[in-house]
Amino acid sequence: MSIQEQLNSTREAARSLVKITAEESAKIIREIADALIANSDKIVAENAKDLARMDPKNPNYDRLMLNKERIEGIASDTRNVAGLPAPCGEVIEERTLENGLLLKKVRVPLGVVGVIYEARPNVTIDVASLCLRSGNAVVLKGGSDAADSNVVMVEIMHEVLRKNGLNENLIQLLPAGREAATELMNAVGYIDVLIPRGSRGLIDSVRQQAKVPVIETGAGVVHTYFDKDGDLKIATDVVVNAKTRRVSVCNALDCLIIHKDRLSDLPALAKQLDEKNVGIYADERAFATLKGKYNNELLHQASAEDFGREFLSLNMAIKTVDSLDEALDHIYKYGLKHSEAIVTENDEAALRFVNEVDAACCYVNTSTAFTDGAQFGLGAEIGISTQKLHARGPMALKELTSYKWTIFGKGQTRK
Description:
By secondary structure, the protein is α/β, with parallel strands linked by helices. 39% of the residues lie in helices and 20% in strands.
C-alpha cells in the first residue's frame, strides 16, 4: 500500500469512530493495555534491535529503551486513559435564543491526527490510546531509530482492533523514512492536525514545511530560579530532581538561575549534583564559587552558547543574577515557553514570577518534572504544547477535540 493509500484508508476509517460508544472505546483501550503486558517479551526483543543500532551515549538511548517495567508503566497510563471520561458529545454550552432556537456547543473529535516523533516508542501507545478515547483516527510517523519497536506495538494494537470488529486503519503507521514525513506534512485533505514530538530541529522543520495545521510541542529550555528568599533544602530537592530524574525529557532542567545573595549556598546545593556526575557550565561568579568545591572534570566556564541550550543530558548551566527582574529577563531571552520554576518563600516574588513568565507551565517551589499529562491527571499526553492557539501545556483528551454548534428549531426562518 502506498503512503497516499494509507492516508486515504485512515481518512475513510475515521468515519466509523462516531459509532463507537464511550464504553466500547474504554474496553478496547484496556484490551490494548493487557495485550502490551502479554506481549512484553516480544516488545523487548524488537526494541533490542533498535537499541543495537544506537550508541548508548546518545541522549535518545534512554528515551528509546523499553523493558518490562517501562512497558508496565505504559500499560498503566493506557488504562488510566480508558478510565477517563470520553470527551466527545459533551455539551460545552447551551442556550435558547429569543426566537426559540436551541443552541448547543458540542465537543467533537478533530478527525485524523498525524504525529511525527523520534526515538520514543512509548509515544506510539500514548497517542493511539488518547486518539481512540477522543474519537480520532491517528497516523503515526515514528523515527527510524525506533522502527522495530513501533511496528510490533502497532501490530499488537491492530490485533485488538480486529478482534473487536474495527478497522485496523484507525491506527496507521507510516514507513520510517523521510519520504513519509514529507507526505504527512503535505497531506492536505487527509490530516486535520499534525503534531511533531521530538527535538527542536524536528519541530522547527515541521512548522516551516507543513501545509497542514501544526501544534508545536516538546522542545524546552527549562530554568529554575533560586530566589534570594528561597529555601535551600527545597531548592536542592527541586534542582536535583528536575535535572537528574530523567535527563532526556523536555521538562528536564537546563539552567539554574541563582540570586547573587545565595551564591554562598551554591556548593551545598550542588553537592548532590556532583554525586550524580552532573556537568556544570557556570558563569563567572558561579564558577568562582564552585571552583575547588566541585569535581574539576565536571565544572566548566560557560560560554554564551550554553545559555538557551537544551542539554538532554547530565549537563546544565548556571547563571547568576542580581535581581528577580534580571532572572525574568534571562528567561524571556532564552526560554522556549515550556516549563519554568521559582524557589522562593516570598509570596510577592512568586506571584510576579507566575504572572510575568510566558510559559505553558510555571512552578513555585516544585520540580518542572511534573510537566506531564499523567502527572496532571490527564491519563497520558500527546505532547506538551508550547504555543497558544487551541491548546497549551500537556495535551490529552480534551485538547484532541474541537466543537461544533448544533441548532434545533421549530420552523423558524430569518427575516
